[in-house]
Design a protein that fits this description.
single chain, 5 helices, globular
């Protein structure tokens, strides 16, 4: 039964791009916790505030949801592509940049 649980957990991790990225960082001893990493950029947080304001607008105008959802999907895909490109050539610098990309995707 324990092997079944392990296989199920492995499948869950490889099926989810964010969990897979976090696991790959973990395999390379890169800590993702916010206590041990530098803060994300000011521009990133301004973008997050703008996205949340747009989300509030969607509450008042639900027809905007489809476009907003597509935009968020594209943003996540960009983070995953950056992550994948950085891992093509593993180096300490690339791993730290990959970490920051995944931290941004978590927001």
């Amino acid at each position: 039964i324990q092997y079944s649980a392990t296989v199920n957990e492995a499948y869950r991790v490889i099926s989810d791009p964010l969990l897979r990225a976090i696991h790959l960082l973990d395999l390379n001893d890169v800590v993702l916790s916010s206590e041990t990493t530098q803060a994300l950029s000011k521009d990133f947080f301004l973008e997050q505030m703008e996205l949340r304001e747009r989300f509030d607008d969607i509450r008042q105008e639900p027809s905007l949801l489809r476009d907003f959802s597509r935009e968020l999907h594209l943003v996540l895909e960009q983070h995953y592509q950056v992550f994948a490109k950085l891992l093509d050539e593993i180096s300490p610098s690339n791993l730290l940049q990959a970490r920051d990309s995944i931290r941004a995707a978590q927001y």
